[in-house]
Amino acid sequence: MGQPSAPSVPSPSLVLRGTLIDCVADPFFVPESEAVRYIPDGLLVIENGHIAALGPFADLYSAYQHLPLVDYSGHLITPGFIDTHIHYPQTGMIAAYGEQLLAWLNQYTFPTERQFQDPTYARQVADLFLDELLKNGTTTALVFAAVFPESVDAFFEAALARNLRMISGKVLMDCNAPDYLRDTAQTGYDQSKALIEKWHGRGRLLYAVTPRFAATSTEAQLKAAAKLLDEFPDLYLHTHLSENVNEVAWIRELFPQYDGYLDVYDQTGLVRERSVFAHGVQLTDEEFRRLSQAKAAISFCPTSNLFLGSGLFRIEQAKSTEHPVNVGLGTDVGAGTSFSLLQTANEAYKVAQLRGQKLSAFKALFLATLGGAQALCLDDKIGSFNPGNEADIVVLNPQATPLLALRNPAPLEHDLATIADPLFSLLIMGDDRAIAATYILGQRVNP
Ligand code: GUN
Ligand code: ZN
Q1: pLDDT for 41-85, tens place per residue?
Q2: N or C, which end of the chain is more exposed by having fewer CB within 10 Å?
Q3: Which fold has domain 81-375?
Q4: What is the rounded CA–CA span in Å between residue 274 and residue 378?
Q5: Could you list which residues have their CB under 5 Å from ion ligand 2?
Q6: Is 356 exposed, middle or buried (0-12, 13-18, 19+ CB in 10 A)?
Q7: Nearest atom, ligand 1, residue 301 CA
């Protein structure tokens, strides 16, 4: 059988009317009034699946009357959400009771991931997983597959069929895991290389070299992962880092010759631009500094960190002016408890509260959109409405449920300061019910 071919890409042209809101800079570092672009009665012009223009409806519409108009007045239109860390094979084991990270992996995760050597089952779950992402307004994700190359094929085939911008890769795991899930430094390298050659850059798909975490890879395997990063342009490195106290202690035992968890990745060549590290809950100040210097990124996964009792991420360390680190939001399903980046922002707000910090609605929106795009080095393509970007878009209904309608009785406000309140209520109370529509390259895909 030949390789699955890319579907004929639909390139719709249309205009959307509604309240446009996106970020053009990082509100952790510049005033929100400069970082957020807000157009109360706006027009978003999509040509050939890409953003062509945006502005006030009254100014722009006359030039685009020839295009089909979809009227979302009373709704918020934002860039599609970006999930910077999630595991598709863990879709069916969300909400596994009672354990913290290391026992949770042994008891629930490894037996679940074993099922993904079956390509039919893997494809079935990949389709359900992508349906769930789109229903929740997530249009791009950085996704762990399983150790089996078949699991990567199944995921990329499903994503390609939907024209999605997705990043994934085969898990590398050559020690401290059940034998049914282990590869070797050499087979992991060879299988990853074959998958990179098959998938990286095909359609909108990109490949991430994916060692699970330092505990399940030998030094030889981590170095082989770095070799792949050297051999192919624009690959990602995707792994876990400093999530749980016992995990960090175990890494010190396993790698006594290194100076801590991040240093294991650093000295094996894995800390670079385009490296995305999930969690970072237990990072030291020095490690934040090193991540900043390397231009690496962190995926902040609050629902997971709370569910597994891992701890509270120190976002202010990542957003310090002295050593800024790019941060995106991750759901980390199945340790995370929701596919919704609205619900993930809700928990991020509470994590900040527990640490005496405030995560404003605009900062949370940034993390779910442009911040995620920057963490994935894709901000020239997604994450904002900048003309030329791919038209992956979400439409939010501030009155989606009776409770939200009670909370947001008034029409949407006409200045940035007052839109903060309905936006905040959507982030705290919203979930898939608040997603009125999701567009992929200008094509409505949900509901
Ligand atoms: N660390 C290593 N593997 C995993 C995983 O599957 N989930 C989480 N949350 N942490 C990990
Ligand atoms: Zn994870």
Answers
A1: 999 999 999 999 999 999 999 999 999 999 999 999 999 999 999
A2: N
A3: TIM Barrel (3.20.20)
A4: 10
A5: 278, 332
A6: exposed
A7: 9
